[in-house]
Amino acid sequence: MWLHNTGIRMSAIKMENLRGTVRHAVLSILVIALVPMAVGCKGYGRSTGGAPSISSVSPTSGPVGTSVTIHGANFGAAQGYNTVKFNGTAAIPTSWGATNIVAPVPTGATTGDVVVTVGGVASNGMTFTVTTASTAPSITSLNPTSGVVSTSVTITGTNFGSTQGTSTVKFNGTAATPTSWSATSIVAPVPTGAATGNVVVTVGGAASNGVTFTVTTGTVSLPIKATANNRYLVDQNNVPWLMVLDAGHHITCALAQSNWNAYFADGHAKGYTEINCFSTYA
Fold first, then answer.
1. Are residues 223 and 209 in the same domain?
2. Is 235 exposed, middle or buried (0-12, 13-18, 19+ CB in 10 A)?
3. DSSP sequence for 148-201
4. For residue 48, with 0-12 CB atoms within 10 Å meaning exposed, 13-18 middle and 19 or more buried, which class applies?
């Protein structure tokens, strides 16, 4: 006879021909033989689809803490006692499904195989490269993004260091003198001589990305009353530095900053020549 749903055929036994202890022994053998089959069908928590298999990991490299998605098959619907290891270091998955697992690279992990173990059965290994987290400074924004020389600019980013020390800020190669400094924010005025170009923060010899700052020009009007042949000074703070006016109303001018341009228009008031100095500076 066939045992129901087992695929096992057994010879018929006429129980009526068995008595006492013999009949009891035969029944016990049948029960013992069937129990392991029933337990075996449960698979001790293993995936019924076969051994776990990894097809890919994404990304394939990153520092500790990087979230990694593991694609494959036969991972089981839930984690349970199953594991994910990065070169032997156990990770703590944030999600688990039969074909996808998401787990951050654990502390202490090194470059090597990612392996998923389900019901005691290990998958194939897929290489993941553990990198060192970047400590280079990074600029995310400037505020404002344009202005004249001496404009106060707030530089926002990361890894600037808690204090300036020997670190620097440059506007298109011209060093600025910061007025405040923290790990995520620097305030610095646009330095004299700066031109439009990238603002770069350098910390410990490592340069940040560059973010463009546009240096604009400004115009100031300096009304000055001067008599013939008198000299006056004009500096970058809009104070007269050197101005020569002769009796014929010819004007000559020298300025402290060579990149300044000065334009003059003279008046004709008796005894005085009124001069409006328009100084365009960069």
1. no
2. middle
3. -TT-EEEEEEE---SS-TT-EEEETTEEP--SEE-SSEEEEEPPTT--SEEEEE
4. exposed
Domain's final residue, options 192, 215, 238: 215
Percent composition of the chain: helix, strand, coil (DSSP 3-state, to 5): 10, 45, 45
Phi, psi of 151, deg, nearest 5: -60, 135
Same domain (yes/no): 34, 92: no
Which of 95, 130, 165 is a domain's end point? 130
Q: How many whole angstroms separate alpha carbon 114 and alpha carbon 112?
A: 7
Burial of 21 (0-12, 13-18, 19+ CB in 10 A): exposed
Alpha-carbon dihedral sign for residues 119, 121, 123, 127: positive
Please write the tens of the pLDDT for every residue from 124-174: 999 999 998 878 999 999 999 999 889 999 999 999 999 999 999 999 999
Range of the domain at 22: 1-45
Q: How far apart are CA 243 and CA 251, in angstroms?
A: 7
**Cβ atoms < 10 Å from Cβ of 119:** 17
Q: With left for phi above 0 and alpha for psi between -120 and 50, is residue 71 left, alpha or beta?
A: beta
Same domain, residue pair 208 and 225: no
Residue 221 · residue 240 · CB < 8 Å: no
Tell me the C-alpha distance between 208 and 95, whole Å.
35
Could you tell me if 185 and 170 are in contact, meaning their C-beta atoms sit under 8 angstroms apart? no
- pLDDT, tens only, 230-240: 444 444 444 44
